[in-house]
């Protein structure tokens, strides 16, 4: 065989191998893309960090397939799948939350995420209103920002109480094998109400993103301004995890018990 023919044969083999590899990668990624984002995070909580990096909503938007979520976030699915495969975070306490009995999961949500909201909510209101007092006259855009921060907190505080006083006790009773049908009827009714309120909180956060250029302080921002945006970004990250645990783990398992 001539050198030219040998070279062509090598190139053809390489092309074929490349095509096979591309096909294998596509086949491997398709199960990921067809799955719901919330399910992927429920299987492995570390995936939440990947989705956050790409701006993919895994809590309120957890019911969408990964393919749809990538399209909504305007990111390449292949990059997201690669990041999910490469995720190597270890020791994350939440990895095991999907395996907890429901009463223990509720205890975790209350002691971790509900407590976090109660601790940070007053600070966010304080920081945002201080910004308005100090800079609102010259930077009018922060006036509606403070109003939306207060709206978020005023939505969340009674939401926590409704979960703790009505829904969570009912789920605890279900997990103990008791029949539950209070003033709310089937437990699916308060669950639907809580999910709707989660969506409302998500909509307010989206508005806050728009007002703050994704929580990016301007160059002239004072320390309070910068701390407020940083605290709000942290608050959102915790709220995403909080809502994910309820929407994608606690609530579906509770509905299964009620059947």
SSE topology:
Elements: H1 3-34, H2 37-43, H3 47-53, H4 66-73, H5 77-86, H6 102-135, H7 142-175, H8 188-212, H9 223-258
Helix pairs in contact: 2-9, 6-7, 6-9, 7-8, 8-9
TL;DR?
With 259 residues, this protein is mainly α. The chain has helices at 3-34, 37-43, 47-53, 66-73, 77-86, 102-135, 142-175, 188-212, 223-258. One of its GO terms (cellular component) is cytoplasm.
Task: Describe, in plain words, how this protein is organized in 3D.
Residues 2-29 and 88-92 have low confidence and may be disordered. Helices cover 75% and strands 0% of the residues. With 259 residues, it is mainly alpha-helical. It folds into two domains: 37-90, no CATH class; 98-257, no CATH class. The longest helix is centred in the last third of the chain and has 36 residues, at 223-258. It has helices at residues 3-34, 37-43, 47-53, 66-73, 77-86, 102-135, 142-175, 188-212, 223-258. Helix 6 (102-135) runs antiparallel to helix 7 and helix 8 (188-212) packs antiparallel against helix 9. The chain has nine helices and no strands. GO terms for molecular function: metal ion binding. Pfam families: Hemerythrin, ScdA_N. It is found in: Cytoplasm. Residues 112-253 form the Hemerythrin-like domain. InterPro entries: Hemerythrin-like (IPR012312), RIC_family (IPR019903).
Helix content: over 70%
Return residue spans where pLDDT drops below 50 for at least 5 consecutive residues.
2-29, 88-92
- Spatial shape: globular
Instruction: Estimate the strand proportion.
Output: under 5%
- Mean pLDDT score: 82
The strand count comes to 0
> Which structural category do the helix and sheet elements fall into?
mainly alpha
Topology as a string of helices (H) and strands (E): HHHHHHHHH
Total helical segments: 9
Largest sheet: none
Over the alpha carbons, how many angstroms does the gyration radius reach?
23 Å
List the domain count as a whole number: 2
CA distance, first residue to last residue:
71 Å
GO cellular component, one term: cytoplasm
Protein name: Iron-sulfur cluster repair di-iron protein
Keywords: Cytoplasm, Iron, Metal-binding
Pfam family, one: Hemerythrin
């Amino acid at each position: 065989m001539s050198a030219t023919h040998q070279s062509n044969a090598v190139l053809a083999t390489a092309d074929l191998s490349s095509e096979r590899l591309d096909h294998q990668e596509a086949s491997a990624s398709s199960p990921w893309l067809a799955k719901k984002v919330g399910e992927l995070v429920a299987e492995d909580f570390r995936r939440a960090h990947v989705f956050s990096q790409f701006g993919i909503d895994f809590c309120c938007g957890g019911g969408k397939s990964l393919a749809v979520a990538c399209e909504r976030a305007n990111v390449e699915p292949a990059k997201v799948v690669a990041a999910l495969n490469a995720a190597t975070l270890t020791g994350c306490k939440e990895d095991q939350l999907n395996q907890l009995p429901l009463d223990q999961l509720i205890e975790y949500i209350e002691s971790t995420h509900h407590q976090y909201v109660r601790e940070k909510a007053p600070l966010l209101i304080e920081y945002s209103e201080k910004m308005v007092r100090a800079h609102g006259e010259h930077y009018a855009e922060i006036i509606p920002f403070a109003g939306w921060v207060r709206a978020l907190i005023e939505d969340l505080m009674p939401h926590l109480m409704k979960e703790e006083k009505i829904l969570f006790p009912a789920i605890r009773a279900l997990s103990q094998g008791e029949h539950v049908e209070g003033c709310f009827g089937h437990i699916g009714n308060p669950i639907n109400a809580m999910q709707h309120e989660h969506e409302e909180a998500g909509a307010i956060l989206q508005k806050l993103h728009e007002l703050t250029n994704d929580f990016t302080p301007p160059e002239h921002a004072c320390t309070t301004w910068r701390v407020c945006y940083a605290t709000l970004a942290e608050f959102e990250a915790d709220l995403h995890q909080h809502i994910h645990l309820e929407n994608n783990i606690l609530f579906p398992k509770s509905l299964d018990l009620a059947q």
